[in-house]
Amino acid sequence: MSFISFVCFAASTAAAFITAPLIELLAALFLLFAYSTKFNERFKGFHWPLMDFLRCVSASIIFFIISIISVSKYVDGASKAAGVFGFITTIFFALDFYFIFNELANFLKGGDSSEEPPNTLWYNLILFV
């Protein structure tokens, strides 16, 4: 969804907002790479699910703001489409940070016996596409 928003913003007159979808796309790619290649297990100093949680929270807020601006300020169809896809991406990121929050809360309560909560590889894959 970040890629679709990126393409829509690139084709619209609201091209000033192209950096937000691009940065979120690259962050999702990095975390997808880290989880899929077990790169995150080499660096125990970082709490990877917390980093993913903060990325999802910031992405949902940023996408919501730029979608409102894109839909309300610009009149071309590509800007409106970028805003609509931005709202859909906001929903996906909000769902992702809700699921990650539940995993983190369960982990912090001690309800999970593993060292880390389960990774969010599938969530990152969905957000990437």
Automatic annotation (TrEMBL):
Membrane topology qualifier: Multi-pass membrane protein
Keywords: Membrane, Transmembrane, Transmembrane helix
One matching Pfam family: MARVEL
Location in the cell: Membrane
Regions that span the bilayer: 6-33, 53-75, 81-101
Domain of life: Eukaryota
InterPro entries linked to this entry: Marvel, MARVEL-CKLF_proteins
Residues covered by the MARVEL domain: 1-105
Annotated GO CC locations: membrane
Protein name: CKLF-like MARVEL transmembrane domain-containing protein 3
Species name: Sinocyclocheilus grahami (Dianchi golden-line fish)
